[in-house]
Amino acid sequence: MAQVLDITALLGSAQSPDASTRNAAEAQLASLQETQYPSFLLSLAAELSSAEKPVDARRLAGLVLKNALDAKDAARQAALSQRWMSLDAGVRAQIKQLMLATLGAQVVDARHTAALAIAKIAAIEIPHQAWPELIDALLQGAAATAAPGAQQAALEALGYVCEELGLLEEDYLEQDAVNRVLTAVVGGMGKHVADADVRLAATVALNNALEFARKNFESEQERNYIMQCVCENTLAPDVRLRQAAWECLVSIAGNFYDALPAYMPDIFALTRRAVAQDDESVALQALEFWCSVCEEEVAAREAGEASHGFVAAALPQLVPLLLEQLTKQEEDAESGGEGAWSVAVAAGTCLGLCAQAAGDAVVPLVMPFVQANIQKGDDWRAREAATFAFGSMLEGPSLGALHGLVSAGLPFLLAALRDPHAQVKNTTAWTIGRTLEFVHGSDPGNPLIGPGNLPQIVQALLEAIHDPATHVAEKVCYALSQLAGGFADPGAATTPLSPFFQTIVQALLQTAARPAESAAEAARLQTQAFEAINEVVRAGAADTVPLVAQLVPLMVGRLRAATAALPAGAPAEAAEKQAEEQGLLCGVVQVLIQRLSEDDAGKEAVPANADAVAAALLEVFACREATVHEEAMLAMGALTYATGHGFVKYLPAFFPVLERGIAHHQELQVCQVSVGVLGDVCRAVEEGIAPYADRVMTAVLSSLGSAGVDRKLKPPLLSSVGDVALALGAGFEPYLPAVCGVLQGSMALSAQLAGSEDEELAEYNGGLRHAILEAWAGMLNGLPRAQADAQLHAAVPAILDLVESVARDPAEDRDLGIWKAALALLGDVAATLSGAGKALGQRPALAEFVEEAGRVPALRETANWASQVIHRAIRSG
């Protein structure tokens, strides 16, 4: 039976300034959670609810309770939820009642913490229909007749509950409950409510509840009332309330864009007031509203859908308003500081999104401001704002609208890299990078950069990369990256950038190693420099390959230096810095190997460096840092492709690392990359994987059968089965029963998910089907025909059912990659399995599928081959 423990002193010790006292108390709290879970949670709830306990103890009790129910990791959250639901129902009821009672406490912190805890409990219990009375209880507390503090806390709890439920995959709030919640929160927002905290809590709660309000926004009367209350609150006396109201409008723009036309004139008037006159926190949200509108209209255009054109209609008034804000830079900008998110930065960001949404129409509205201010020698703010405006408008307008302006402006920008003010230089380098990203290389017939101006551009950038301000050097690295990218020409013998390759790479290597005022600045600069090196190498023509080959031992040497053991007692920051550097260097090594693998001259340079590369990467794996593990694994994947069957010599040392990576479910990216590299290894060494086959398949099948594995891993794991089958050939037969069972289960799951209206589930099912198709194809092509016929014949009906489900995809949802895999598998079935022709002949939908695919240029060759093989199989019976 759960009992209330006296934990007040323990909670106080857990907040002690003395580390040993604090650590001991935290350890004791953790022990209580493990050994006396029911009593521990009940004691925390009692502590939080007791008016006699110290405020600090009550606050911490609530937070510990909340954290005992909450985890970021999905598997951990599932375990915590299960443990809570396994508690005696009476104990859970006691805890919940104490939490609800605490919403009426005098202490604000206690009410707030109780609201958080209630939401976490609700997220666990409501999906189990275990707390049906919660919404009614909170609505009762949120009534206007309640005391202001209790009303505020109940509204806050409603908001948190809606927020938590909104994160779940299914909707657990019935429409009637949604209606009552909205009535309560909108009622609490009104001007007639005297308490500002109540109005604020109601407004925040509305924001959290908007995800459930789709039907309410379809009703003009309900929508008008909600919008009226939100817009009124943008003018409220309390700045917190004005900000929260604008945050609501941002959410409404993202969720209910099509409901906005009637309100946009009023919203623009409110925008002008908020941006030009209000507190910065409010202005930022008003700008965010227009950013959201821009993003909606860009997304609509990319999807081929119509939009209301709010941005284009507002441009003549909106752009001048944005330009006015660009001169409101932070004061530390003059000394070159990077500055926080500010009205000036937000306005520039919004201007950039307007350019994406409205295109060419932005240019004539921006250019007069640029021309009037970019050369104001006595006003650095004007020069920086003009440069920022020019750079911001470059993504979206057509090349025709920009080319002449950029061509004329580039000399001014290069000269401005020597501006006396660091912020102007910083923005100039960024703007040059933007011009190179969006204009350079876009029109080969009318190039922005050629032999006439390239030397001056390179010289200016290489001078600026030595600027004392590291953030200026960062932007120059970005510009050099875009300069190289614009010259990328696969297969070219040379490009105009080839003569500068070595000089640019040397400058970037020096920049990557230069010190900075802070570790964070040094890390950012190093990252930008190495990323620029990668882009320069990728874009290098054939005549740069010898220089690329020379870089390999240099970078391998740096990588080995970065894996040296740190001195005893080195701070944690040193280990973190070392891990980051290892990851960056692994990325460079990967790019170098990939570039050398792209042509014959480069491939000849790989064997001489392969042993050193493999040894250095194995040293990185020994560090066991998950993030570095991922980068090193990708580099090893590049080495498998470059060395081919020769990679088999590295398998004794590398395979245990690969095996651990496949089993490392807790790090999703590491596991995904490891599974991908398994496929690379199989394709490279083919039958050379045989000595490791049992361990490979044990790891893969164990992961596929584990409930604790993230579902995103299932498709790549299934695809890897096909890679292993192709590599092993006849040696794959022992694994067929287990693999076929897994594939049957996966096909059943895919059938359940077919037609799902949930976009995320539909996307997942697409990847799942593709992987299943690849797995079957790998087995059909890898196994000798007699083995395949004997072992896989029984699976033909299920395989054909899967392909038919692909054929039924609506035209707008068709994925050509999946269709091609389905066509190829049909051909494999027809060519490999005796008697398949009869099954195929009985399915006219499949013949229609192949015929329709043959009309798609990208699928025609595969469809024609499949059609021929299928017809032969049908004729032969």
From TrEMBL:
Domain of life according to the entry: Eukaryota
Q: What SUPFAM superfamilies has UniProt attached to this entry?
A: ARM repeat
**Residues annotated as domain Importin N-terminal:** 25-105
Tell me where it resides.
Cytoplasm
Name the UniProt key words of this record, in alphabetical order: Cytoplasm, Protein transport, Repeat, Transport
One of the record's GO molecular function terms: small GTPase binding
Q: Which Pfam families does the annotation name? A: HEAT_EZ, IBN_N, TPR_IMB1
| Chief site of localization | cytoplasm
SMART domains according to UniProt? IBN_N
> From its record, what is one biological process in GO terms?
protein import into nucleus
KW Cytoplasm (keyword) present:
yes
PANTHER family, per the entry? IMPORTIN BETA
What family is reported? Answer: Belongs to the importin beta family. Importin beta-1 subfamily.
What is the recorded name of this protein?
Importin N-terminal domain-containing protein
